[in-house]
L-lactate permease
Amino acid sequence: MMAAIDVAIAVLPLAAIAYLMVGRFWPATRAMPVAWIVAIGAGYFGWNMSPTWIGAATINGFITAASILWIVFGAILLLYTLKRTGAFDAINQGFASISDDRRVQVVLLVFLMGSFIEGAAGFGTPAAIVGPLLVGLGFPPLAAVVVALTGNLMAITFGAVGTPLIIGMIDIFEDVDVISSAVAAQGMNIEGWVAEIAVWAASFHVIVGAALPFIGVAMMTRFFGEERSIKPALEVLPLTLFAWASFAVPYWATAYFLGPEFPGLIGAMVGLFVTVGALKAGFFHPDEDWDFADQSAWPDHWVGDIQPGESSSRDTHVAADGGTVQTMSLPRAWTPYALVAVLLVVTRVVDPVTTFLQSNLVLQWQSILGTSLSGSFATLYLPGAVFVAVHLLTIPIHGMDAKEIKGAWAETIEKVTPAVIALLFAVATVQIMLQSGTATGTDGMLIVLSDTMAGVAGGVYPFFASLVGALGAFLAGSNTVSDILFGTFQYGVADQIGFPHTIILGAQAVGGAIGNLIAVHNVVAALAVVGLVGQEGRVIRYELIPLAYYATMTGALTLLFGYVLFPGVF
């Protein structure tokens, strides 16, 4: 009876989020403070957490949220910098020159370019960059967010140059004696074993992700097209499959031969080069361009503070027909984003640079309120610093004047402000749930929920392994955190039911990516950069579609691999 009560209490914060945001369409700015209060009640009355521990967990959550906000701030600042200089318009015209078809633009920008950004930066950065690019091209902001969140899913498992597997599994497993000893008995070390997990995760993604570019296009045409049908998406099915193959082959080969750091980066770079080349050569392009209906026919909730295709640039001139013609060259316009890509790779691959950034200007709070919790804010290492640095470099590169600089900063602050409350309380809620066990020396809320799932599922638990990973990412907004939370747990369940550990942890790594589709942090950040904060519940409803597909297919493959095809894998 007590176990049932524990489960009911543990699920209350999640139920509050689901009911208020998905059921009632409450914005995260209202729902997350309520969920935080519910989590406090669950922690205090259900887990006997002291006020000190609840306060420490909340502060730790605020510190983590500050890291996320720093990234969002930097991404938005660079966005509005490029809008002020005219670079944004030039970039839009560059993609439009390849194709005016919105379906083709989704494949190029969302699936391929978004995957590159995810592989380099992680932290939900792709939606913060790609979403505004789509809006600049004329997409409805709501449609831009929905497809931007969906398209780069295959790269999330390896996001930020392998951080989810390097930090989330290698660093954790090396400190767990039971796991490290068992791996050593197999003649491997932890690093080599996690590299094998990476290959299994890539294998799941390659198979299930074959439909991913198509799903992104189909969601756009079905929910935002004038005809409300997936038929227009079927017309570009050959293109989506070609783009997937161009990405998937180097992606899987990189995971197999080089490890978890670069699959997303290399897969996206090769895929983008090959796919753009094929389109320019006249292959795979649909016969007729597809576009949205006229904006006058769009529902009000599709558009927020930023108008699709709006231009605030000063680098244009009036054409003979009264329109505007962009005068900034495409290479010059792309230079800031090229610098972002280079700096992100350098800061995460070049050891002396990485070490310097990770050890300087780091704000730390050890033993928060006398507890064992500690929080840190790595000002220079977080991608936000790269965005701000590139903003500063763009000032002379694009010749910005003081008025333009001031305008970019003012617009950035205005757009970021609504996301602050939502993110602060979302992460604080997660931290209370995470620390409920640490504070009391018992199983925390998340472990209770996962144990319950394992006990109920029994031998078919591997089908749900990716969903457990998705739960962690949904709560924390991070594949890395999901791997930290549930990697050891998934290993233990595999032990209990006699299932291959490597395969179930591959499913965990994929699940961490799936959960990012509906992670409140990511959804809020994506909506903030297109001026649509308040539509979180609606976006999450849409994202449940690719989540259900991906989780179901991954679950079926996990059972097939572990019980039928590869039962002898460690």
The chain has 26 helices and four strands. The chain has a mean pLDDT of 88.
